[in-house]
Amino acid sequence: MTTTIPATNPIPAANPGLASSALPNLGCSTAPVLRERGQREVFCGLTGIIWLHRKVQDAFFLVVGSRTCAHLLQSAAGVMVFAEPRFGTAIIEERDLAGMADCNEELDRVVDRLLTRRPDIRLLFLVGSCPSEVIKLDLSRAASRLSVKHAGQTKVLNYSGSGIETTFTEGEDACLAALVPELPADQAAEPVLMIVGTLPDVVEDQFVRLFAEMGIATVHALPARRSDAMPPVGPNTRFLLAQPFLGETARALEDRGAVRLDALFPFGAEGTTNWLHAAAQAFGIDEMHFRRVIAPGRERAKRAIEHSRARLEGKRVTFLPDSQLEVPLARFLSNELGMHPVEVGTPYLHRRHLAQELALLPAGTLISEGQDVDLQLDRVRAARPDLTVCGLGLANPLEAEGLTTKWAIELVFSPIHGFDQAGDLAELFARPLRRRDVLRV
Amino acid sequence: MQLTVWTYEGPPHVGAMRIATAMEGVHYVLHAPQGDTYADLLFTMIERRAKRPPVTYTTFQARDLGKDTAELFQKAVRDAYARFAPQAMLVGASCTAELIQDDPAGLIEAMALPIPVVPLELPSYQRKENWGAAETFYHLVRKMCGGQTARVRQDSDAPRANLLGPTALGFRHRDDVIEITRLLESLGVAINVTAPLGATPADLARLGDADFNICLYPEIADTACRWLERHFGQKTVRTVPIGHGATREFVAEVAALAGVDPAGVLATSNMPWWSRSVDSTYLTGKRVFIFGDATHAIAAARVARDELGFEVAGLGCYNREFARDLREAAQIYGVEPLITDDYLEVEAAIQALQPELVLGTQMERHIAKRLRIPCAVISAPVHVQDFPARYSPQMGFEGANVLFDTWVHPLVMGLEEHLLTMFRDDFEFSDSAGASHLGHGAPGHAPGHAPGLAPVAQPELVLAVAEGAADAGGSAPVEEPSGWSAEAEKELQKIPFFVRGKARRNTERYAAEQGIAAITLATLYDAKAHYAR
Lengths: 441, 533
Hints:
The structure holds 2 protein chains of 2 kinds.
Chain A: E1 33-37, H1 49-55, E2 59-65, H2 67-76, E3 87-91, H3 94-97, H4 103-117, E4 123-128, H5 130-134, H6 139-149, E5 155-160, H7 170-179, E6 192-196, H8 201-214, E7 219-222, E8 237-241, H9 247-255, E9 259-260, H10 268-282, H11 287-312, E10 316-319, H12 326-337, E11 340-346, H13 355-360, E12 366-371, H14 373-383, E13 387-390, H15 392-400, E14 405-407, H16 409-413, H17 419-438
Parallel strand pairs in A: 1-12, 2-3, 2-4, 4-5, 6-7, 6-8, 8-9, 10-11, 10-13, 11-12, 13-14
Helix pairs in contact in A: 7-9, 10-11, 10-17, 11-17
Chain B: E1 2-4, H1 12-22, E2 26-31, H2 39-46, E3 55-57, H3 62-65, H4 69-84, E4 88-93, H5 95-100, H6 104-111, E5 117-119, H7 129-145, E6 160-164, H8 173-187, E7 190-195, H9 201-204, E8 212-215, H10 218-232, E9 235-237, H11 244-258, H12 271-276, E10 287-292, H13 294-308, E11 311-317, H14 323-333, E12 337-339, H15 343-353, E13 357-360, H16 362-371, E14 375-377, H17 396-408, H18 414-423, H19 459-467, H20 486-493, H21 497-514, H22 521-531
Parallel strand pairs in B: 2-3, 2-4, 4-5, 6-7, 6-8, 8-9, 10-11, 10-13, 11-12, 13-14
């Protein structure tokens, strides 16, 4: 079923779903971007640990940082948790800074204690933080030292989730990028598909089933669910990004010869169709067969989305910068639910990976990158959108001002990708509006 | 370096935020990277505040480090001053900015703002949240009261007191303030200023108008109260009115300082009768483990022993600043003081002591849930559940009522205990039906259920999914029952489920101590006799 395609093959042009072929409408492709540089009300990259540790079940994430880092993780984790989680913080103390203790020796001691307590851990990430970056603690050297020390039991890698270098989801990007050089070389003679980005297992399984039905039998996922099952990579790897925030990971994969398949991100019926189609084309799947395979899911998605249409159609929505999912989600809301994006703010705009998405945003949408939160809130108050998608620190204050909000973090913690989650995704946006309408208090 | 899984306290700048957010007219400019803005959600989500905390973060990035982070700080101060027009400003650095040594104090001094400015030095790598709050409040008080003199009281004036210590994100501070204000008013004592909660900087400048201070939360207000004693010669009421007895003592102490008659307000709690009434007999000698901030833990120990008839089996606190007070209290109850901020140590202590009730923080609630021990929350760190919509103070006479209800309800009620024993062979009272008070249809089996029993759904997992972020996999393994004779095992099943787990553990511990390999019927009853009280 699969055929080899050369790595240099031009990537198929923008193709929003199947219904309409590529159109000359450029949407927001060339729209000017408002770049702001002020207070950024966003999480740092450490937050990604919350979902990464759930995905890779034999990995432990050890933040080398301050009490603030530990407090952030516990606050962002929603509430406090029952059991001993697979993340923790090695808190740098005064004596480490004053040189009374050697940071590296201290770190070795902490890791020894941790691995004694948790012999089930096969992969340990040392996660850099703002303080560890500022004092220039070399975690990559520490990781290689500790990898040797614990060889045979635990592999030790490092990445930075620091707020001075990463914003929220960029932490996952940094983590996956750190995994890429460790991946085994793929010797396959034929192209192999890889899905890149943390997805809930149930969603990943749905995609794998669809690909199998199409005839793409082997589908790798990065990250895998266990550290010893991380996928191989090589010049025959064709990868689909499942998340729009994986710029570094994509580059690292490309450095190893892998080829990115350009597509919309798999949100909604159209986004998911386009994403699956990119793989189908790359693997030479017969077009009719492809349509037959996806038809039931696509129809289910459309039906499920329809439930929220009445609530959302014609409503105005603003996204404040949070997870970098903003552009694809605004595209979904605008194209499939008839919402009008007012401002789409994103912490970082990856133009190349979002090229197709931007082309499908209605012309006139204000795209902003970075943040000056007070100025941005002034714009929200002036525009008074029907729905504002924002972080947890801002939601209740905006509600108190009479603006309906949706917490952005739920979009990161909930299964929203693919056909069978499209209805849930629409519902996430519709629910705050429905609630506003039903309440009589 | 300290390996930390969960923390009881945030960094000291979060303490400063609790002061700034509690007050009106104060703005805090915090030199900090972008991730530190998470702290806003503590106030807007956990406490459901309708306003953003009055905090501007500079949110510097790596690329700024080589350039001018100091200019970034000054710009943030300028913008915040122009936008929020505060009466007073706090400035400081979070852990990362402390390392880059931009000197916010010097920078803001150079800006010569026309309002009082308090530069905060809160060493993030040594100190924690409560200390940061106390230090911030103290410096603000000092700044605002510096040039003021104490008011000379006229004979015709009603006595006046300041109520000091309540903050944003405090455990029931909102309701405690209402309760204590009512109590003082009924005594004929006027509140001069309540601070920091709801106060402006101008209010702080009037602290000297009061005749005395009430140190409601020593963790926050003690440092400021000591300074006010020296500066204005104001006396401090130090009894913390948590529990019926402590509230009576508090009233007596206030009345003595204010020169008023306390008689009229001394008996307004239901707690004494509720506790003496016969249904409460079953509370006698229940072993309770207490952990929290020192003030709440010490107060809880007194209520537990003297007002509910419990036995204090363990007592501890996470804030070392008040370790001495806690050690003294532990001595009174004849227990080892547990002073630690390591959650795993607390868990180990609870596991070893096997109390019948845990009074703790949200951390201990999770530990207790896992060990299937009833638990009530008595102290910060706070959780969204600790901000109930209803009025629910911990302090004063109404607070004593609340303590009775919230500590007793997790336990199996007295009458219910007998009924369960009597009817436990009826299908409606079958073991797997569990106790209704545990809610969620959680089955009542203690950990380590007998191998012969049908496995029940893991309540931890159900709850883990519900709370969305749990990892049920990592908990300490529950000891497998070993060496039980069939006869002893069968007898164990006759013991009501809510004490069966304890009976099993006690018997196994007894067997281990006595070097008995096979647990027989006799061992079971020997152990029962051994642990009888």
